[in-house]
């Protein structure tokens, strides 16, 4: 196939230079939200405090209801939500002493399509251009936070324990050098039981479930070494930690507790989106990131080339791609699938023999890639004909496959 419309948006990572406007991070939880911004003097993330002295702001409506509000047209509540976002942005501008906003990075407690789409509509209502905002999951925000600390705090591994009402979530990250790149990979675990969940909801003291938590973590850490442990979530929002749990966690490890890890990670993400410095230096292959690159053969100006459809480490929600090609006699499209996590490369083949062949390069195809998760890819191929010369056959090919 011969490509005549290209331009893949490839993410880059780690710190750059220059000031392109204020970078704001927003952590959207179900009932409250937090805000931070990047202080470029020391490249640090600063939490925003609101007029009531608190570091969080209560959502006007629970975030899990935002999709319904937009879907059913509750304009008054949508206006309240938009005003809420405006207030958070204005408070970040006021606190930082800056006016121009360069990037807003949001992280959400539940990375689902309905909530993400509703945030997109809110951004549109606020007249914030697509290129000035990003949305990532809590897992991604944690990686951005952890890997923007000193190297000795994340190498060779780092762990986050997020203690919520529905159980304790463990995200264990490590990085390995593969093919000249540093790949950040993540394993996730969850501990849930009646007593653990009750302590996460603050109905039981943390000391009553410490033994159960320690036993669970001992099994996880049998095969992993971590340099640092980060604690967040309601279950850890206590004045005094149980001595037994503290002793276990601090055994040859640095331990940090706080409720602002995700919001600070979001601001680091925003900064690195706005000020990229190094291409292909590190690849985030955690949950909600596609860990497999996708390429395909094309002919450009008579020369066979590989088109990079997707760079590994791309957030699946931001991974949609659309291309137009002029096709010659073509029966199949081969997609080269290249995992960045050490797994073997493989190929996906799409049968396009049903699209009529036309001589003289008179076949124009739209090829669209969409993703519904970090391991689910949908490819849609449409016969577009060739202007007024050749009408489209109306043929549409849909192919779905899992990404290894």
Q: Which helices and strands appear, and what pairs or packs with what?
A:
Blueprint: E1 2-5, E2 22-28, E3 32-39, E4 44-47, E5 57-58, H1 66-72, H2 75-96, E6 101-108, H3 113-125, E7 133-137, H4 138-146, H5 151-154, E8 157-164, E9 167-178, E10 181-191, H6 194-200, H7 210-220, E11 228-232, H8 243-249, E12 254-257, H9 261-274, E13 282-285, E14 289-290, E15 292-300, E16 303-310, E17 314-315, E18 321-327, E19 332-339, E20 346-351, E21 363-373, E22 376-383, E23 396-402
Parallel strand pairs: 2-6, 6-7, 8-11, 10-13, 11-12
Antiparallel strand pairs: 1-18, 2-3, 3-4, 3-5, 8-9, 9-10, 14-17, 15-16, 15-19, 18-21, 19-20, 21-22, 22-23
Helix pairs in contact: 4-9, 7-8
**CATH architectural group of the largest domain:** 2-Layer Sandwich
Helix count from the secondary structure assignment: 9
Question: What best-fitting shape do the alpha-carbon axes yield?
Answer: globular
Low-pLDDT sequence parts: 2-18
Mean pLDDT: 90
Number of strands: 23
Distance between the termini: 26 Å
CATH superfamily of the largest domain: ATPase, nucleotide binding domain
Q: Which structural class is indicated by helix and strand composition?
A: alpha+beta
**Largest sheet, strands/sense/barrel:** 6 strands, mixed
The CATH topology of the largest domain, please? Answer: Nucleotidyltransferase, domain 5
């Amino acid at each position: 196939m011969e490509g005549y419309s290209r331009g893949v948006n490839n993410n880059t990572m780690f710190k750059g230079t220059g000031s392109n406007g204020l970078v704001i991070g927003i952590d959207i939880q179900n009932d409250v939200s937090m805000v931070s911004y990047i202080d470029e003097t020391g490249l640090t993330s600063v939490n925003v405090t609101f007029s009531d002295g608190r570091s969080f702001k209560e959502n006007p409506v629970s975030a899990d209801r935002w999709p319904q509000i937009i879907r059913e047209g509750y304009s008054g509540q949508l206006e309240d939500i938009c005003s809420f976002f405006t207030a958070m942005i204005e408070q970040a501008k006021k606190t930082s002493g800056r006016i121009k906003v360069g990037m807003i990075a949001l992280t959400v407690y539940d990375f689902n399509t309905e909530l993400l789409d509703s945030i997109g509509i809110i951004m549109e209502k606020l007249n914030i251009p697509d290129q000035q905002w990003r949305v990532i999951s809590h897992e991604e925000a944690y990686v951005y936070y952890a890997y923007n600390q000193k190297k000795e705090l994340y190498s060779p591994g780092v762990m986050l324990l997020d203690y919520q009402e529905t159980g304790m979530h463990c995200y264990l990250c490590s990085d390995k050098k593969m093919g000249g790149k540093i790949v950040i990979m993540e394993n996730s675990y969850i501990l849930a039981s009646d007593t653990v969940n009750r302590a996460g909801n603050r109905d039981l003291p943390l000391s009553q479930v410490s033994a159960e938590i320690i036993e669970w973590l001992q099994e996880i850490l049998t095969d992993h070494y971590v340099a640092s442990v980060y604690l967040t979530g309601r279950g850890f929002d206590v004045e005094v930690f149980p001595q037994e749990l503290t002793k276990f966690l601090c055994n040859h490890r640095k331990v940090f507790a706080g409720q602002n890890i995700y919001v600070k990670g979001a601001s680091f993400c925003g900064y690195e989106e706005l000020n990229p410095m190094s291409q292909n230096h590190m690849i985030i292959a955690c949950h909600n990131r596609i860990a497999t690159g996708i390429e395909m053969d094309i002919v450009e100006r008579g020369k066979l080339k590989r088109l990079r459809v997707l760079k590994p480490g791309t957030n699946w929600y931001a991974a949609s791609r659309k291309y137009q090609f002029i096709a010659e006699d073509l029966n199949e499209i081969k997609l080269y699938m290249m995992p960045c996590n050490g797994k073997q490369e493989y190929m996906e083949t799409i049968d396009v023999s049903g699209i009529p062949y036309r001589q003289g390069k008179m076949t124009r195809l739209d090829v669209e890639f969409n993703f519904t998760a970090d391991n689910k890819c949908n490819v849609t191929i449409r016969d577009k004909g060739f202007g007024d010369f050749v009408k489209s056959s109306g043929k549409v090919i849909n192919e779905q496959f899992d990404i290894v």
